[in-house]
């Protein structure tokens, strides 16, 4: 029961951060597609940041070490440090992008956004592996269930986030003309030139 309360409080924290982000982002404005991308980034960022930070505290830190050990991931100490760092860094990047979407997505920072989403996918793929590993009991998994439903959902969300349009002037698939809020000019995307 105590474990359910802890995990419930983590989920409540993610929900609170997401709701706060939604309320702030509604005030910023933008098209519904841009708003959806911002909210998706905020959700992914909150999940990664809170998940990464929770691994510094018991009992989550103990369970995390057990997960890495029982799943026989290579170089356990390095893996633990890498997952901590990447979850926290990718979470911060995605949260920053959710607040400054148009400015950051149209500039030179776009590759950083793509890398943060790719890191999210890699982390969640490793979680799918850990969930499906026969030596890992469901009792030490983050949600206490073997099917990696949450990890697969976050993979789909990260893939959707990677393909989100870059600005108000971008086409629905992220290709074509991209309106720069900073310069007021339209730039032709490389994809529209090649297609």
Can you summarize this structure?
Helices cover 68% and strands 3% of the residues. With 195 residues, it is mainly alpha-helical. The relative contact order is 0.12.
Number of helices: 8
Number of domains: 2
Major sheet size, sense and barrel closure? 2 strands, antiparallel
Order of helices and strands: HHHHHHHEEH
| Structural class estimated from helices and strands | mainly alpha
- What is the averaged pLDDT score? 75
- How many β-strands, per DSSP? 2
Strand content: under 5%
Work out the radius of gyration: 18 Å
State the shape.
globular
Distance between the termini: 56 Å
Q: Considering DSSP H and I runs of 4 or more, what fraction of the residues is helical?
A: 55-70%
Runs in which pLDDT lies below 50 for 5 or more consecutive residues are 168-180, 185-195
In what order do the strands lie side by side in the largest sheet?
1-2
Transmembrane segments: 6-25, 37-58, 78-100, 112-132, 138-158
Keywords: Membrane, Transmembrane, Transmembrane helix
Architecture blueprint of SSEs:
Blueprint: H1 2-28, H2 32-54, H3 60-70, H4 76-99, H5 101-105, H6 110-132, H7 149-162, E1 177-179, E2 186-188, H8 190-194
Antiparallel strand pairs: 1-2
Helix pairs in contact: 1-2, 2-4, 2-7, 4-6, 6-7
């Amino acid at each position: 029961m105590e474990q359910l309360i802890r995990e419930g409080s983590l989920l409540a924290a993610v929900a609170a951060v997401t709701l706060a982000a939604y309320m702030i982002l509604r005030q910023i404005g933008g098209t519904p597609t841009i708003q959806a991308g911002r909210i998706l980034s905020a959700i992914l960022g909150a999940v990664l940041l809170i998940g990464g930070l929770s691994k510094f505290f018991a009992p989550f830190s103990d369970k995390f070490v057990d997960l890495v050990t029982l799943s026989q991931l290579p170089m356990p100490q390095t893996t633990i440090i890498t997952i901590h760092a990447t979850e926290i860094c990718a979470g911060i990047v995605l949260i920053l992008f959710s607040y400054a979407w148009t400015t950051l997505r149209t500039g030179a920072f776009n590759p950083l956004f793509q890398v943060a989403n790719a890191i999210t996918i890699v982390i969640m793929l490793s979680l799918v592996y850990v969930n499906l590993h026969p030596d890992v009991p469901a009792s030490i998994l983050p949600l206490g269930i073997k099917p990696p439903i949450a990890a697969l959902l976050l993979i789909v969300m990260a893939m959707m986030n990677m393909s989100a349009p870059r600005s108000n002037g971008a086409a629905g698939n992220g290709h074509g003309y991209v309106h720069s809020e900073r310069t007021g000019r339209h730039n032709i995307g490389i994809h529209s030139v090649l297609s």
